[in-house]
Description:
globular
Amino acid sequence: MLVRVDHWALTTAVxxxxxxxxxxxxxxxxxxxxxxxxxxxxQVGGIPIDVDTNQGLVTLxxxxxxxxxxxxxxxxxxxxxxxxxxxxxxxxxxxxxRKSVHASDERIESLVADALRNEPALSSSGISVKSVNxxxxxxxxxxxxxxxxxxxxxxANAVPGTRRVASEVMGPNQYxxxxxxxxxxxxxxxxxxxxxxxxxxxxxxxxxxxxTVPASDINIDTHRGVVxxxxxxxxxxxxxxxxxxxxEISGVRAVDDELRVVERIDRWFRSDRTVEAAVRRRLxxxxxxxxxxxxxxxxxxxxxxxxxxxxxxxxxxxGIAYRTPGVEHVVNDIHIDMREAS
Length: 342
């Protein structure tokens, strides 16, 4: 695992759990940038790789053909903006166990063009195939939303025969609030299209605040409404509950459950007061602008109250508490007060 040392919140023994988030950079954006970098890479472009980010810790999941590809994916992710560390769960599956697909550039171009044209979510953007050269797809045009740009690259990357995806697409370089936090935005009016980033974030928040799922090592990625759960849970009951929670999220078409049940040996014998102090310290270190968050820990349940100015800040605070050693559950009573932003 590659680790960029930005801050140690507790001890070096749990660095991968406590790497500090990069200020001003959302997990959703980091995930998207890592995905784009992987798809554009000559080494691993064309390979479906799940990506999840939690407070700057990026987790990679999926299958590659060689150890060289596995190492390359890790390096590419680590060099992406906002990444504090990388956990590489990619499995090496030898080439003889996988089917190689060969297709002409003309065939690939036709399939990518059809995929872009037939995707309703891209109807308001003007993204097209500029060229295909030896399996390298070059996209051009303009994306109305950042999520449209990512989706177009994913559609091209999924076409059999694509080796990698390059992009000259113009458009926003950040998610708009409604792309990730749609149902939590109350001002400004207008509808909201459910994006993969929204589904992932909503699923994470639901899992982190569910009283029946103990703090677990669950990672989530979403592609065109299909949620992939990977990582570990402490029991079959937690595995089933995580699956059910994901399936209940609006916009989810299916759930690919790759969670493994690993009985947890609890090494964190800490008093509520000690855990509460750790959560409070990590929240202070995160420097969430305008946040007024209070913490109360009882029986390993951390209750968060107070206010933040953005839905993203509430998510950040919950994630920090959830991943603090000694916390089993999080109750989120934080309210959004956008007046504090002014």
